[in-house]
Amino acid sequence: MKIELHKISLTFKDQKLFSDLSLNIAQGEKVWLQGPSGSGKSTLMKIIFGFQQPNSGEVVIDGNILNARNINAIRSGMGYVAQNIPLPKLKVGRFVDELIQFEANRKLGLSKDVVLKTLEKYGLEEDVLDKNTEELSGGERQRLGFGLLTLLDREIWLLDEVTSGLDNNNAKLIIKEVEETKATVVVISHDKIWEKLNLKKIQINE
Ligand code: ADP
Ligand code: MG
User: Fold this and answer.
1) What residue segments make up the domains of the chain, in order of their start?
2) Where are the alpha helices (DSSP H) in the chain?
3) What is the pTM of this model?
4) Lowest CB count within 10 Å: 28, 48, 163, 175, which one?
5) How far is the CA of 3 from the centre of ligand 2 (A)?
């Protein structure tokens, strides 16, 4: 799926974050959003996912302008992983069950075994399923979120600091998945390890 931003503007109180920002990310393209801390990278990712409304301008996903009616359908083609993403307050196991039973995911026929194997790959043992989502550390949330994303067959991956605080092995696993996926990928990260992938760099508010 391709991502287009058309003349996005957004002001918080009196802080003008974006003013007529336009950019295109082609189908299958992998980009690295860069810019100083506070420049709006995370906010831009939320705008693409429909978690933040711009004051003006349009987000166009595969030719469809995002709006209140189509956001759920379009979002089900995207995966967004960030440390502070709101998770429902329940056991991780329930969360996983609900996720694999969710309409847009049911067709994948994911079993609990497959999920467990994937979580194990990212260093999460079966007992993580008995934890409450709010008990997870930032790193556990990232690994859970990213592991699940790789199973869900999403065409757009939005990855906000998914390797921060992870050990080198876990970070390498994530980078390898990003290298191999056919999805369109947007990365935000301070980790130099991403240099290996030759992602196209996009500067925000230099
Ligand atoms: P980055 O990810 O590049 O570090 P952010 O997108 O997180 O930057 O934030 C950009 C700026 O917008 C920051 O100054 C932040 O405080 C502000 N900001 C982000 N979200 C909100 C919000 N919902 N309300 C008010 N200000 C916000
Ligand atoms: Mg950020």
Assistant:
1) 3-203
2) 41-49, 71-75, 92-101, 103-106, 112-121, 138-151, 168-180
3) 0.95
4) 28
5) 19
